[in-house]
Design brief:
Number of domains: 1
Shape: globular
Strand order of the largest sheet: 1-2-3-8-9-7-5-6
Helix content: 10-25%
CATH topology: Collagenase (Catalytic Domain)
Strand content: 15-25%
Length: about 270
């Protein structure tokens, strides 16, 4: 996600809106975005930020670019490895199963540059020779990329959004990309689009933001730590115990073409 104006967010809500204030509930039990106190507590218990949570068609948008579905909110962790994040790469409890496997990806009703970026992102994953591969198809993909048009809100703009794998082991089925001119400009840079799609695909197969423990690392602002979670923050062995500035899953973008660094490849190879 990027910042516009004074701020920038990467992953997908430009990647997401790096908000600096915690969501607050009103006396009616809902916050200013109409999200109930019970849902906010559920989101917090799952180890996700409650800053700027928004209700969307298929669930709740959290951390700027992650969609938590009702199924996600109802799940409990079965992993003994969930812990407070520090700096390593982290995954969700659910991963894509039935490996080796090829996941199809399609795109619809978006300009040609988005299609080119999609194929570039697929090529980047497939070049790693993982047991999980991706294949571009003309329609009906298991991950479908669609567009939406939404301008800035609160000083930030959402670049895109996606979610996490299902309990059954299938990838999250949709990536939404913002076509508003204030997201990528009137002539989007294909490499930047590629990096955002690469990031969103990472969520679809189970990756958390590398710096979810302290979003200030990539987004700036006040340091925050979501604390222990009961689902969705599982340490990936072999990844670093110090800050990882180049990770493709950092919460906020530096505005450039961020791809896999060495530690990202270790994490992907371990899981897939």
């Amino acid at each position: 996600m990027f910042r516009t104006g004074a701020a920038a967010v990467f992953a997908a809500t430009l990647l997401f809106a790096c908000t600096k204030e915690n969501s607050k509930t009103t006396t009616t039990g809902t916050d200013k975005n109409g999200v109930s106190a019970a849902v906010l507590k559920n989101i917090s218990d799952l180890g996700f930020s409650t800053d700027q949570v928004r209700k969307v068609n298929n669930g709740y948008l959290v951390e700027g670019d992650i969609v938590l579905t009702d199924e996600n909110l109802a799940e409990t962790s079965t992993s003994p490895n969930v812990r407070i994040a520090e700096t390593e790469q982290y995954r969700t409890t659910n991963l894509v199963k039935n490996l080796p496997r090829t996941v199809t990806v399609s795109i619809s009703n978006l300009p040609t540059v988005y299609g080119t970026a999609t194929q570039n992102a697929i090529a980047r994953y497939n070049a790693l020779n993982l047991r999980l591969k991706f294949q571009f198809v003309s329609s009906g993909g298991q991950i479908q990329i669609i567009g939406f048009n939404e301008g800035p809100s609160g000083g930030y703009i959402t670049l895109g959004s996606s979610g996490f794998p299902t309990k059954q082991g299938n990838p999250y089925g949709q990536i939404q990309m913002n076509t508003n001119s204030q997201a990528y400009g009137t002539n989007p840079d294909v490499n930047y689009l590629t990096s955002v799609l690469q990031h969103e695909m990472g969520h679809c197969i189970g990756f958390r933001h590398t710096d979810y423990f302290n979003r200030a690392f990539s987004c700036g602002g006040t340091a925050t730590n979501e604390g222990a979670s009961n689902v969705g923050a599982v340490l990936i062995p072999g990844t670093p115990s110090t800050a990882d500035a180049g990770s493709w899953m950092l919460a906020c973008s530096n505005g450039g073409d961020r791809t896999f660094n060495t530690n990202d490849k270790v994490a992907l190879d371990y899981l897939y």
